[in-house]
Amino acid sequence: MRFTFFNDFLALVFPQTCAVCRSSLFDFEELVCRSCQVQLPTTTYHQRPNNNDLAIKIMGLTQVGRVMAFLRYTKKGVSQQLLHQLKYRNQPEMGVLLGKMYGEELVRSGYKDIWDGIFAIPLHPAKQKRRGYNQSMMFAEGLSDALGSPVHDSLVRTKFTSTQTNKSRMERIANVENVFSLVSAADVRDKKLLLVDDVMTTGATLAVAANVLLAAGAAQVDLAVIAAGK
Q1: N or C: which end of the chain has fewer CB within 10 A?
Q2: Largest Cα–Cα distance of the chain, in whole Å?
């Protein structure tokens, strides 16, 4: 009772606000109010996972199955706002929430029990230590909660690379060549896997990582990101 009273007191003095519109959240709302949730710039890529601009973008780079994104990325838009809070404002719980939301949408669309495991694009250990968490892994954890597929962390990044921002498609591919390795092939061999990241722009990072999983014997690798960039 004392603990509940203290929480109620904190909520009164420091009310939690929506990450988008800044209005006060109700007790049943988490990070983003229901009104803003229904207005998120979502895509329908999961309804046409083999025939969308992301699938076309990575053609020739890798032989993956489905290619999907939860949100459309718009500069200075809601998706950028949420990603900025996830990556730079120390809000790992935002990634989990977005993963749960997208996972629930995928379940409603018949994607339950599709994947044997979920992998996230790893950060270099030095970068993850600096940030405190891997934003893509947070997205994977949220997806796992909704989909019921386990998350694996056996895909690792062995080389520190410069940012992909402002690089051309070929420069991005060269920048991430030979940077990923697999610690345990048992998590991959003959499995149908979902590989996730925060944003897909050219698809170079996801394609290189997917090829590592496929080379280790994955039966199929599908891709999903929080937001589809341009």
Answers
A1: N
A2: 60
The domain total for the chain is: 2
pLDDT tens, residue by residue, 195-229: 999 999 889 999 999 999 999 999 999 999 999 98
What is the per-residue burial (b if ≥16 Cβ within 10 Å, else e) of 6-36? Answer: eeeeeeeeeeeebbbeeeebeeebbbbbeeb
30 lies in the same domain as 54: no
Whether residue 16 sits in one domain with residue 83: no
Higher per-residue pLDDT: 70 or 176: 70
Sign of torsion, CA 137 140 145 149? negative
Amino acid at 82: L
> Domain check: are 18 and 126 in the same one?
no
Domain that holds residue 8: 1-39
- CA distances for 97 relative to 66, 173, 218, angstroms: 22, 30, 28
| Contact of 192 with 114, CB cutoff 8 Å | yes
**Band of residue 167 on the pLDDT scale cut at 50, 70, 90:** low
Find the mean pLDDT for residues 99-117: 97
Whether residues 27 and 97 share a domain: the answer is no
